[in-house]
Amino acid sequence: MAGAAKTVFLDRDGVINKKALEGEYITKWSSFEFLPHVFNAIKILKNAGYKVIVVTNQRGVALHKMSMDDVDNIHR
Fold this sequence. Notes:
With 76 residues, this protein is an alpha+beta fold. The protein has three helices and two strands. The protein has a two-stranded parallel ribbon with strand order 1-2. The model has no long low-confidence stretch (mean pLDDT 94).
């Protein structure tokens, strides 16, 4: 497949940031904690020519533990 972009998808919770305890959710920026070396790892991927995309399934929204606005505020 000529010209196909190299892309890597990274899950947010547990890959980019410290995952909350089972049954708990990261609902605000002050609770968000980046994992060690994550910035360097992403830099290595980008330098290797990968497009890096972060994905997340926020079950806390469906369970009304947080709103989409909460998620958007964290991601900003």
